[in-house]
Design a protein that fits this description.
Chain lengths: ~270, ~625
């Protein structure tokens, strides 16, 4: 029975490892490859940590199994080893992990700065024209406000702004910035395929930049509890060529300004 | 050799000295409003075990909704008035209440009080060799303040007939928790919830003051700081954490209460600590304010991150004691263990910002908090290596205590390693508020702390009741809980990687999550297994309390002072006031060999003819 318990502690980490190994093929992994530049960097850092963590996991779990196995197969009347520890071992297992942890920590800084520090945003993202829309979260929807075509987005609404709900159109292949805010409680702008997440905090206007590599539709969901309907803040990010976005905005403008008079004048 | 051996009768029982103090106690003052630390500890233990089942039931309801969304709850769906308005179905509002109350019950009514309240109370005077706590009345009050807290939590849950209540998560972020219009029906219930939280804090604070004073002032002669068992060190450090962090939460709680009352009594109380101007919630009037919701997050996590260690450190200490005893071997690296607990506590005060990496706080702060958070993994790693070192080469006793402790170490490793992903800010941007974090903190809070507690209940049960628990049942309980636990929480890492956000009543609404239903069903089945297997623990606990095999003072052949007292100890604990000559972990030492045993009690003086063992 003793050996059973030792094997049990070998068994479960093995099963856990197996589940992780087959996970990508079963769809238990990222919803898609990263579709933005920072997404690629985030995934790279994730796999870096994953490798370090996997080695540590296997090493320490099997070490538990090993010491249990040694205890289980010990001769009946043999005594326990008498030791209060080892100064040398303590130093080794203090210094080695601290170097690894500092390394992990330092390896994050550049990406973090690029994502969050405004002065480290890519140059294109710092231009006023990169600011394509305001995303205003409210219970339980996303209100998108675009500037009147041909003008820059203002922080507060201006006459001629275009509005739409739960659908954000962005051009592909270049950094874009959205002004993220909330009308009521706290929400979070989360696009799993783009690996973008930022809370929308009441009272703050937070610029968020990202770029989308490929044309397509991506999910936009809420990642901060915002009330009973938190789960249904379902929206999509539509990535198109710049021309496609321009056409979309033109059409949106036409629909928004539609008052019945233009059609008549065209008929005359 | 001047060993003092208490006289034992044939069954290993010493005379019950509870009457030796010459004062008669009524049933009420002995078992209900007791000032005896042991009774208070057992009161805490029974209450928290009961609450564990309540919290577990709430969790199973959450799991039901995730596995079978919008389907009628079996059995309980029709049982209570609760669900009848929905025809036995969990509404989204009720879902938010379920996970809020699950967390509140588990954190504030189970984990914190079972560690500090139950084991802290029971073990501190016994392990340091004094007759009771420094302030017995304060100690009694710390237990009885739990009850108004529980009443407040219950009120918050049932106030609106169970259809509306505190659905803001246990973190209660404003403005959702601040403006009553933000979550219709959460008016008074949310205020009750905050009052309950404050009362739990008062209870914890009374405990902490008592533990600190007792440990500093009332140690037995010879019990130097570095002869204290690691359990005592962990309780000491935990008490410091609580004493310094709790006032911040209490203050923040009152600020939120005042903000909320402002909407009811706008002319008398009108604070806007967390409310910015011009917020329009649910078509109400725009708010007048100048407050800042991020302030709450800072204040809340300034308490609640140290609280994570309050929920873990005592288990770490107890596991060190148990592993050493069950391996018949001294703790590997006693002083590094103490220093790393101190380091965890110290660093624990400067890592709170890692809960706020996506909150929009200054990114320079994010970098600082990332580095300090990474560094807190270091003392955790040192402790893990030392636990493995303690078992290494030991004469292992394969009972359920050892298995639960080994389970603790194994689960703590998983929880610690998954934390590294979230300490790294860019990676956390993806994982924040997904099921990855749910997996992470359950590995720490359930996987580590509760498996440690399962071991500790069995280990100190003989001292509490003079009887032992059935080891075979405990082994079944361990293996079923362990399988159920890993089946529940390991796949949640994968849900997190797949991008499934927390606190979604119906994640399958989103196309990219709809294929995860099968995995969620598997998780729910595992959770049911885990929940049901807790009845083994409860059954064994209450059965053994009255029918378990009677045991003597020291059934585990352990070294600590508590094992020199009668089982159960009477009022005043020790029949012979202990004097301490050595550290608590000298198993299998040359001196114990000279006595012909593999342990040597802390009260045994130097054994003639054997070279004394030097401490490292």
């Amino acid at each position: 029975m003793k050996k059973f318990w030792a094997l049990f502690f070998f068994f479960w980490p093995t099963v856990a490892m197996y589940c992780c190994l087959i996970a990508p093929s079963r769809g238990w992994w990222f919803p898609s490859p990263p579709m933005s530049r920072t997404g690629v960097q985030i995934d790279g850092l994730f796999y870096l940590i994953l490798i370090i963590v996997t080695i540590t996991f296997v090493g320490t779990q099997y070490a538990i199994g090993y010491v249990l196995w040694k205890g289980a197969t010990k001769e009946q009347d043999s005594k326990a080893m008498f030791s209060h520890g080892s100064h040398k071992l303590e130093i080794i297992w203090t210094i080695v992990p601290s170097f690894i942890l500092v390394f992990i920590s330092l390896s994050q800084l550049d990406v973090l700065a690029e994502i969050r520090v405004i002065s480290s945003f890519p140059e294109d993202a710092q231009k006023p024209a990169a600011k394509i829309a305001e995303v205003m979260a409210r219970q339980f929807e996303w209100r998108i406000r675009y500037a009147k075509p041909g003008t820059d987005l203002t922080t507060e609404p201006s006459p001629g702004d275009l509005y739409f709900v739960n659908e954000l159109h962005v051009p592909t292949g270049k950094p874009v910035v959205i002004n993220l805010r909330t009308q009521d409680v706290q929400h979070a702008f989360f696009s799993p395929q783009l690996r973008v997440k930022q809370d929308a905090v009441p009272g703050l206007v937070i610029p968020v930049w990202f770029d989308v590599k490929e044309v397509g539709e991506y999910d936009l969901v809420c990642a901060e509890l915002c009330g009973w309907g938190h789960y249904k803040m379902k929206a999509r990010i539509v990535a198109q060529s710049q021309g496609g976005v321009d056409n979309y905005l033109k059409q949106l403008e036409a629909e928004q300004n539609e008052d019945g008079t233009k059609a008549e004048s065209a008929a005359e | 050799m001047a060993t003092v051996t208490p006289a034992l009768d044939a069954h290993g029982h010493a005379d019950d000295h509870s009457h030796g103090h010459g004062h008669h106690q009524s049933f009420i003052s002995k078992y209900v409003f007791s000032q005896d630390h042991k009774i208070i500890g057992i009161q805490f233990l029974c209450t928290t075990l009961l609450m564990l089942m309540v919290g577990g039931a709430l969790a199973l309801a959450v799991r039901w909704q995730l596995a079978f969304p919008w389907q009628n709850m079996p059995v309980v769906g029709q049982l209570f008035g609760l669900f009848q308005t929905e025809g036995g179905q969990i509404s989204p509002e009720f879902y938010t209440m379920l996970f809020t109350m699950h967390a509140s019950v588990m954190i504030f009514l189970v984990i914190i009080p079972i560690l500090a309240g139950a084991f802290g109370n029971f073990l501190i005077p016994l392990q340091i060799g004094c007759d009771d706590m420094a302030f017995p009345i304060l100690n009694m009050l710390s237990y009885w303040f739990m009850w108004p807290a529980m009443v407040c939590f219950a009120c918050s849950f049932f106030w609106a007939g169970g259809t509306a209540g505190p659905g803001n998560g246990w973190t209660s972020y404003p403005l959702l928790s601040d403006l009553p219009q933000a979550a219709p029906g959460s008016g008074s219930p949310q205020t009750f919830w905050l009052l309950g939280l404050t009362l739990v804090g008062v209870s914890s604070m009374m405990g902490s003051v008592n533990y600190l004073t007792t440990i500093i002032n009332m140690r037995a002669p010879g019990m130097t700081l570095f002869r204290m068992p690691l359990t005592i060190w962990s309780m000491f450090i935990t008490a410091i954490l609580q004493a310094f962090a709790l006032p911040v939460l209490t203050a923040a709680g009152f600020m939120l209460v005042f903000d909320r009352l402002g909407t009811i009594f706008p002319t008398t109380i009108h604070s806007v600590f967390f409310i910015p101007a011009n917020i329009i919630v649910n078509n109400a009037e725009p708010t007048v304010g100048g407050g800042q919701p991020l302030l709450w997050q800072h204040l809340f996590w300034f308490y609640s991150h140290p609280a994570v260690y309050i929920m873990l450190l005592p288990a770490m200490g107890m596991v060190s004691d148990m592993l050493s005893c069950m391996s018949r071997k001294p703790v590997f690296g006693y002083k590094p263990m103490v220093y790393s607990m101190a380091a965890i506590a110290g660093l624990g005060f400067i890592v709170w910002g890692h809960h706020m990496f996506t909150s929009g706080m200054n990114p320079a702060l994010g970098m600082t908090f990332m580095t300090s958070t990474m560094m807190i993994a270091l003392p955790s790693a040192i402790k893990t290596f030392n636990w493995i070192g303690t078992m290494w080469g030991g004469d292992l006793k394969f009972n359920a205590v050892l298995l639960n402790c080994a389970g603790f170490v194994a689960m703590f490793i998983v929880g610690g390693l998954s934390g590294i992903f979230m300490a790294a800010v860019p990676v956390d941007i993806y994982f924040h508020d997904t099921y990855f974090i749910v997996a992470h903190f359950h590995y720490v809070l359930f996987g580590s702390t509760l498996f440690g507690v399962f071991g500790a209940i069995q280990f100190w049960f003989p001292k509490m009741f003079g009887r032992e628990m059935n080891d075979t049942v405990q082994k079944w309980h361990f293996v079923l809980s362990f399988i159920g636990f890993n089946g529940t929480f390991f796949p949640m890492h994968l849900l997190g990687i797949a991008g499934m956000p927390r606190r979604y009543a119906d994640p399958y609404l989103h196309g990219y999550l709809s294929h995860l239903l099968d995995m969620n069903r598997f998780i729910t089945i595992s959770a049911i297994l885990m929940g049901v297997s807790q009845f083994l623990l409860l059954g064994n606990f209450f059965y053994s309390m009255f029918r378990g095999k009677k045991v003597g003072r020291n059934p585990w052949n352990a070294n600590g002072l508590e094992w020199t007292a009668p089982s159960p100890p009477g009022h005043g604990n020790f029949d012979i006031a202990p004097i301490v000559y050595r550290g608590p972990y000298e198993y299998s030492s040359p001196e114990s060999d000279a006595l012909g045993q593999d342990y040597i009690l802390q009260t045994v003086p130097h054994v003639a003819g054997v070279k004394a063992v030097a401490h490292h």
